[in-house]
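Quick log. Single chain, no ligands specified.
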Amino acid sequence: MADSPAPTNAVRTNGPARSTEVGDVPDALRRRFLTESGRLGGGVAYYVDATTLVPSFRDKGRELIATRSDPATVRDLVAIARHRGWSSIRVQGAQGFRREAWLSGRAAGLEVDGYRPSERDEQALARRLEAKDRKPATERSPVAAPAGAGRTPSENLSRPSQRLRIVEAVLRDRVADPSAQARILAAARSRLASLLERDVRPSPAPERRRETVALERRR
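-> predicted structure:
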């Protein structure tokens, strides 16, 4: 009896979508890839260079098919899904592909069907969200203002708090064991508390800084 063929790794829209147009991708991806139409089952194939025989993925409008399953390719598919306004996606294929698609999709704020995360997956997601919050604003967006510019400490902390609420919602949906939920949330809150402590550490008052400078000059 012949072996079953390997499942196709794919991400598709799972609900209303702003766009399902073939070729509608972020400008950064458009500049990075070379494309070829009408090959390998239709749609548009995206290649990393002119000599590569196998494309990284194929774009068929409502469906993105990954011929490569590395994390970087999965992140590209999720970036396209966000660009097209897909708030909910369905993933299929190998378990490793579906796991990475779930992690990347949830970290990007998308609902993801087709993969049931483990307890370790939930912890990995929590750490990705925390790392995302710690990243300087200039790395998140080319035109972003410096972190904390023109905002109060409470406003600076709202984003990590939102991330924690996402983790809590995912846990309620995916982890049935209350004790497991409690362990994961405790770890997430501990990391968040450390992050918040660094963010709200007060700087010296202007008057105190001026007094310090004056004393140093007298010396």
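Confidence is low (pLDDT under 50) at residues 141-158, 200-206.
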